Structure formats: structure tokens, C-alpha cells
User: Which sequence fits this backbone?
């Protein structure tokens, strides 16, 4: 059975750990187990409860009122939230709850329903990125079971690939970009989204995917014109050294700009070669893509 720390609940729900502790003292909807050293441990059911409580509280319900609701009452009130932002958060929370329950059928239905009404691009920007942002750190730190990660990320991956395939193959921009992930990196969702946006803009892409040796990148740049090298790095295998990777990439071809996004780009504090650009936020990434 999955268990979560109070920091996990804070990361996923957005509710500060201090507030969660106060709610535990005053109300009855959370009753965590405690270890011999008095550290709180929360079940998957309690994670679902805190997601429901946090959403209802954010959109106007008092905690004292929520505390008196049954699980069915909470779900009914959540489904009745009509604000646009509330709808997005409701869907993201539903995906998280489906993930911890390993309910892949419901997880996929939630995505399909949003895609049907909003389209794949809005689904990615409104729902998938928010979902990944809230649970991604837990995947990186192994606070979520790998089975949960693989099942959900593969469903998301399939939806983005379907969106890419449905786009017309019309390349109107005089630009060629190579997309890849370094050796030891297999988290493809962020890079696939970039592929979708570039193809939508009519930009020619070579999509190399995961676990690509630097020597292969160098060979490709020697054989054809490349305007940008683009890599998205989330959580590579243990032993990956960001500074070493950046040094290797700087030696591929000093004339080719290199753009790197993802969690590793956000966290990196060292120096980079002049042709390397680290985009540390989603906003910076989207701004760069819009400028092409």
C-alpha cells in the first residue's frame, strides 16, 4: 500500500504542511499513522481526501463545513464547481487520485474527455503540465511507486504522440531542430510536447527520443544542417552529471545553439558555454518556442 509524508501531501495539494497539521488537530478528515519516531504517514485514501478538501476550500467552502461532508458529498460539490480554473484543478486532482489508485481506465477517460472538448494542446498546457509539475518531484525522489509513474506517463505519452500524428505534415518554416534526451534519460513527455508545438509551427524536426549518446548527436550535425539542438532533462538515471553533459554538448559544434529545458535545467547552478541556453521555467520555454 502506498504511503506519503506530510511533505508529499504539501507538494501534491499545494497546502502547507503547517496548515495540514492544524487541520489534523481541529478536524477529523485526516488521521495519519505515525512511525515509532512520531513521523506522520498518510495513506492513498488520505491523499485523495486532502485533494478534495484543498480544492473545495480554495473555491469558497469553509473547512468546518467540509469536515461534516461525506466523501460522496465532497465529490458532488467538486463536480458542481463551474469556474474555469476550478475545472482544470478538478481534472488534475482526478488524475492524481486515479494514479494513486492505479485506475488507468479512469485516468485515460479523464484525458480523453478533456481532449474532446479542449483539444490536445490545451489538454497538455492546462492539465498534463500541471499534473506533471505536482507529481514530478515525487517521481524524481521515489516517493511514488514506479508502477504508478510508468502507467500514467505512458498513457500521457500515447495521447501526445496521437496529437503529433494528427497534425498536417507541412513544413513552412526554414528551420531544422533536433530533439533528444541524453544517455540515461527516459522521461519523454516534455520533449514530445515540444515536438508537437514545433510541428504545429511547420518546423522540421528530427526526433531522436530517449537515451541518445553525444557521439550520435555529433554525427548527425556533421551530416545535415541543424539550426538548434534541443534537450529536455527531467530525471536521468543515477550517476548522470549535468556539468559533464553540458561540457560534451559544447564540443559538438560551437556554431549550433543548444537549448535545454526540464527539471535538471531548472536546478543547475553551474556555468555553461555561450551557445547553451537553459530555459528554467515553462514560461521561458514557451517564449522561446514562440520566437522561432
Assistant:
Amino acid at each position: 500500500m502506498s504511503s506519503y509524508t506530510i511533505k508529499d501531501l504539501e507538494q501534491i495539494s499545494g497546502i502547507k504542511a503547517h496548515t495540514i497539521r492544524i487541520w489534523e488537530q481541529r478536524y477529523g478528515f485526516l488521521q495519519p499513522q505515525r512511525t515509532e519516531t512520531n513521523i506522520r504517514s498518510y495513506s492513498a485514501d488520505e491523499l485523495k481526501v486532502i485533494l478534495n478538501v484543498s480544492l473545495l476550500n480554495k473555491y469558497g467552502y469553509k473547512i468546518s463545513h467540509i469536515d461534516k461532508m461525506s466523501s460522496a458529498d465532497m465529490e458532488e460539490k467538486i463536480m458542481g464547481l463551474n469556474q474555469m480554473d476550478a475545472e482544470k484543478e478538478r481534472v488534475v486532482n482526478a488524475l492524481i487520485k486515479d494514479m494513486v489508485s492505479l485506475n488507468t481506465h479512469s485516468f485515460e477517460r479523464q484525458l480523453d474527455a478533456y481532449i474532446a472538448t479542449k483539444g490536445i494542446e490545451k489538454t497538455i498546457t492546462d492539465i498534463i503540465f500541471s499534473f506533471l509539475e505536482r507529481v514530478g518531484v515525487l517521481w524524481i525522489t521515489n516517493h511514488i511507486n514506479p508502477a504508478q509513474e510508468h502507467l500514467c506517463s505512458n498513457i500521457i505519452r500515447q495521447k501526445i504522440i496521437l496529437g503529433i500524428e494528427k497534425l498536417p505534415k507541412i513544413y513552412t518554416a526554414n528551420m531544422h531542430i533536433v530533439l533528444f534526451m541524453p544517455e540515461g534519460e527516459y522521461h519523454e513527455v516534455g520533449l514530445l510536447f515540444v515536438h508537437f508545438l514545433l510541428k504545429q509551427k511547420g518546423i522540421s524536426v528530427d526526433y531522436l527520443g530517449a537515451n541518445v549518446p553525444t557521439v550520435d548527436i555529433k554525427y548527425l550535425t556533421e551530416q545535415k544542417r541543424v539550426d538548434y539542438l534541443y534537450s529536455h532533462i527531467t530525471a536521468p538515471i543515477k550517476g548522470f552529471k549535468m556539468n559533464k553533459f553540458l561540457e560534451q554538448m559544447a564540443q559538438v559544434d560551437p556554431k549550433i545553439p543548444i537549448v535545454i529545458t526540464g527539471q535538471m535545467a531548472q536546478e543547475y547552478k553551474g556555468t555553461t558555454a555561450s551557445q547553451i541556453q537553459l530555459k528554467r521555467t515553462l514560461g521561458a520555454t514557451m517564449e522561446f518556442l514562440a520566437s522561432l
In short: The beta strands are 3-4, 33-34, 40-43, 176-182, 204-212, 228-232, 258-261, 276-278. DSSP finds 14 helices and eight strands in the chain. The CA atoms of residues 217 and 252 lie 7 Å apart.
